[in-house]
Design brief:
The chain is of the alpha/beta class and about 350 residues long. It has helices at about 40-50, 100, 150-155, 160-170, 185-195, 210-220, 230-235, 250-255, 280-285, 295-310, 325-330, and strands at about 1-10, 15-25, 30-40, 65-70, 85, 90, 115, 120, 125, 135-140, 145, 180, 200-205, 220-225, 240-245, 260-265, 290, 315-320, 340-345. Strands 3, 4, 5, 10, 11, 18 and 19 form a seven-stranded mixed sheet that branches.
């Protein structure tokens, strides 16, 4: 076991502060990674403040990890010391159930081992995330990061990237499709970049008219304000796919009216309360309302390789770990374009 500097939330809602975790010594199949960067996901705030319940404290958040391999176990074949590697939302699963055998480890029937605020598959050993200087993970849950990707910009791809890539792949986004992205934040800006790169005609739907220039810079072909009631009549029946990234309460029925027959609206955001859906919003036009989580390890690797081929990374603001509490407050105000990324070397100065 090795003592590892980290930052942790000591209790629900408490400011994050310096902490020390113990990382296991690498076993035959393990990879020891010196963490370079860790993205700050909105779910880090939810969990550090125990807004979803079930939090395990002290909690070290962080599941958008990019680092350099320091050491590998003797049975490791895919990675070598010096490689740039990534760790996303999971660090293990049962590997035996039907979802695991079909590359959907995120739906492991026994419950995947998530990167933080959980346990390893032994259900005893705590997992601690990427707000730390190193991590030890089984090779099968480590991603290879293509050399052409900027490491800091690539960090959010491990969550925001795969969260938006997966539904675009599931719903076969292709040239000529009309895709709307609802909300221009950490998820939304990635959805715009990815959908545009797939050849879709992308329209950004946002409450903030001030974001139009950014949306177009990111690749959107159109922009409409959802504060303007005429938007919903003017764009009625237009879109093949709507990617909804909003976690604030909003009327799903209004957005379903923007779909063409047999179109789909995919939910990525999690509003705090259930949202009523009228049956005729779906029945009229054979429309589909779906949800999407992250992706399995194979799809996440596919996403990284795709982003490398198309020159896609997140728009990031790099911060030292000492500013993490300020970053949380700024995220809650929407004051980030579009993802904070921690320079983990700053932990040496914590």
């Amino acid at each position: 076991m090795s003592k590892t500097p980290a930052y942790a939330a000591p209790s629900p809602g408490a400011p994050l502060a310096p902490f020390t975790v113990e990382r296991r010594d690498p076993g035959p199949h393990d990879v020891l990674i010196d963490i370079l960067y860790c993205g700050v996901c909105h779910s880090d705030i939810h969990q550090a403040r125990d807004e979803w319940g079930g939090g395990i404290f002290p909690m070290v958040p962080g599941h958008e990890i990019i680092g350099r391999v320091r050491q590998v176990g003797k049975a490791v074949t895919r990675l070598a010391p010096g490689d740039v590697a990534g760790v996303g939302c999971m660090v293990d699963s049962c590997r035996e159930c039907d979802p695991c055998r079909h590359d959907s480890e995120q739906f492991c029937e026994k419950g995947a081992a998530f990167t933080y605020n959980g346990t390893e598959m032994d259900r005893r050993t705590r997992t601690y995330g990427g707000y730390s200087t190193r991590v030890v993970v089984d090779e099968r849950f480590v991603l290879k990061v293509p050399a052409s990707l900027d490491p800091a910009g690539a960090a959010p791809l491990l969550c925001a990237g795969i969260t938006t890539y997966s539904p675009l792949r599931q719903w076969n986004c292709k040239p000529g499709d009309r895709v709307a992205v609802v909300g221009l934040g950490g998820l939304g800006h990635m959805a715009v970049k990815l959908a545009a790169s797939m050849g879709a005609e992308v329209t950004m739907l946002s409450t903030s008219a001030s974001k139009e220039a950014d949306a177009r810079r990111l690749g959107a072909h159109g922009f409409a304000s959802t504060k303007d009631a005429s938007t919903f009549s003017r764009l009625a029946g237009r879109f093949d796919l709507i990617v909804d990234t909003i976690s604030a309460p909003h009327d799903y029925n209004a957005y379903l009216g923007l779909l063409r027959p047999k179109g789909a609206m995919v939910l990525l955001g999690v509003p705090p309360e259930p949202t009523p859906v009228a049956a005729f919003s779906l029945i009229s036009g054979n429309k589909r309302l779906a949800g999407s989580l992250i992706g399995g390890i194979a799809e996440t690797q596919e996403m990284l390789d795709y982003c490398a081929a198309h020159g896609i990374v997140s728009d990031v603001e790099i911060i030292p770990i000492q500013k993490i509490n300020e970053a949380y407050d700024r995220m809650m105000r929407g004051d980030v374009r579009y993802r904070f990324v921690i320079d983990v070397s700053s932990l040496a100065r914590a």
